[in-house]
Amino acid sequence: MTLCVQDLTIDIAGRRVVDGVSFEVADGQRLGLIGESGSGKSLTALAVLGLLPETATAGGSIRWNDRELIGMPDRELAGIRGDEIGIVFQEPRTALNPIRTVGRQIAEAIRIHEHIGARAARQRAIVEAARVHLPDPEHIVDRYPHQLSGGQRQRVAIAMALACRPRLLIADEPTTALDVTIQAEILELLHSLVDDDGMSLVFITHDLAVLSQIATHGVVLEHGRVVEQAPVPTLLTAPASPITQGLLRDATATLWKPEGRA
């Protein structure tokens, strides 16, 4: 299945915030949307699943498996969300429901799309919890989000997104709120799961160093427009646009710190 975004525009309260964004994600491809805060990368991802704010209007075309998603009735989009396309948000603390066990939340998409009972859904939740390497999955599914660490909550969010084995995963800065060690573990987990399932990936980040660990191709956004598209090795060695050059400097500064500095 292929995702094709063509001349996407997004207006919010009469102001254009995404202007003519185009890119394509082939089956099994790992693509990164990268840019500074306010570049429009997250809004672009939300537009794919029809999750834009009520004040936003999308134009252009977003086609998934030859189906136009812009203007698709929400009932039809609901059949795609979680089943064919999964999404992981940046901050699991706000993405998870604090008054429901994590097992129920992992199983929710399974129950909606596969129409199975509560007992079978709980067993599936345990399987999915184990798949994302949550400790003691038989018991952790009965806990609430506040009883888990930040890294564990993000693993729950990944399990929720992948429970129905979607063909495309959108990951919206899923490691930004985590410390460096946990960040590396989550990136390794995502890389492994994407490879195992043969799914496509759209990974959103402001960090070129992170992008280099997970994606093969990058689309650079600035002020809602695409300024550069290239394989990730090219972005790392021969960035063409000033914004990409700045992102590379930031990544280099993160990866190399003089001895004695924090």
UniProtKB/TrEMBL annotation:
Domain of life (superkingdom): Bacteria
Per the record's keyword annotation, is ATP-binding included, yes or no? yes
Instruction: Give the UniProt keywords, A-Z.
Output: ATP-binding, Cell membrane, Membrane, Nucleotide-binding, Transport
* Predominant place of localization: membrane
Q: Where are the transmembrane segments?
A: none
Q: Which SMART domains match?
A: AAA (SM00382)
Location in or out of the cell: Cell membrane
Q: Name one Pfam family in it.
A: ABC_tran
Instruction: Output the CDD domains linked to this UniProt entry.
Output: ABC_NikE_OppD_transporters
Q: In what way does this protein cross or attach to the membrane?
A: Peripheral membrane protein
Q: Where is the ABC transporter domain?
A: 3-248
Query: Into which family does the record put it?
Result: Belongs to the ABC transporter superfamily.
What protein am I looking at? ABC transporter domain-containing protein
Organism field? Microbacterium kribbense
